[in-house]
Amino acid sequence: MKKIVKYSSLAALGLVAAGVLAACSGGAKKEGEVASKKEIIVATNASPKPFNYEENGELTGYEIELVRAIFKDSDKYDVKFEKTEWSGVFAGLDADRYQMAVNNISYTKERAEKYLYAAPTAKNPNVLVVKKDDSSIKSLDDIGGKSTEVVQGTTSAKQLEDYNKQHSDNPTVLNYTRADFQQIMGRLSDGQFDYKIFDKIGVETVIKNQGLDNLKVIELPSDQQPYVYPLLAKGQDELKTFVDKRIQELYKDGTLEKLSKQFFGDTYLPAEADIK
After folding, report:
1. d(Cα 227, Cα 107) in Å, to the nearest integer?
2. Residues 145, 173 contacting (CB under 8 angstroms)
3. Whose CA is closest to 197, among 163, 241, 170?
4. Comparing C-alpha atoms, which of 140, 62, 143 is closest to residue 105?
5. 231 vs 133: CA distance, rounded Å
6. Which of 137, 206, 235, 240 is the most exposed place for a label (fewest CB within 10 A)?
7. pLDDT tens-place string over residues 124-156
8. Rounded Cα gap, residues 173 and 204, in angstroms
9. What does the pLDDT look like over 181-239, one tens digit per residue?
10. What is the 3-state secondary structure (H, E, C) of the chain?
11. What are phi and psi for residue 16, nearest 5 degrees?
């Protein structure tokens, strides 16, 4: 009888030990799976529509849905979005708080020296916007002495600051603001300033959505491809390789075109040769 009890006790202990080992093994596997994925925080200021915006409290837009497609089913990365002010996008990349940003970002030499540009995702040239009843502005040659609103650090702000350096005898008047583009366009429509330089897709979307029928769009010449890019922090070379490859794949399988038509109403894609 004693032998049976002793054997049973040992067997029970063996079963418990096996269960503990199995539980530990299973737990370690799960922890390993979670640890193998790197969290990628993507910054945006949720403007301008239709590139990035909020709808019913959720982020969406061409670039947001494209990022989701890029990281979909990735066994290496988890993606998370964080909304911030325009200036906070770059400050966060500088501080490694964000690994990536999407915000209708165009190319500049200054940014290229500080950050990594991924492959372009959309073609979006700048245009000049004025009131239809204003015949005094027909091109950039006519903006001297005229006023506009700009957000500091944007491509258009830099363009106009450079313009003023070259035309110090008759500079354009720059009113700096932290308002979003929709608000700026509304004030232009109300006559609070004279013109606005911004991207074609954003301008046409706001004019249509806000019913700003008193505004007209003037095409501008460009000496470089007017593309939109995801921007990555310095040192994120491996992530850039992944993102570039996925953009190429999504271009080829038609996802980029589908998203372009969904959010822009037409195909605004870069040349295929420029995303390789």
Report:
1. 7
2. yes
3. 163
4. 62
5. 39
6. 235
7. 988 999 999 999 999 999 999 999 999 998 889
8. 24
9. 999 999 999 999 999 999 899 899 999 989 999 999 999 887 666 899 999 999 999 99
10. CHHHHHHHHHHHHHHHHHHHHHHHHHHHHHHHHHHCCEEEEEEECCCCCCCCEEECCEEECHHHHHHHHHHCCCCCEEEEEEECCHHHHHHHHHCCCCCEEEEEECCCHHHHHHCEECCCCEECCEEEEEECCCCCCCCHHHCCCCEEEECCCCHHHHHHHHHHHHCCCCCCEEEECCCCHHHHHHHHHCCCCCEEEEEHHHHHHHHHHHCCCCEEEEECCCCCCCEEEEEECCCCHHHHHHHHHHHHHHHHCCHHHHHHHHHHCCCCCCCHHHHC
11. -65, -45
| Residues 6+ positions from 198 with CB-CB distance below 8 Å | 48, 126, 127, 129, 156, 181
Residue with tokens 């027909």: 138
Does the predicted model carry a pTM greater than 0.70? yes
CA angle 225, 110, 264 (to 5 degrees): 40
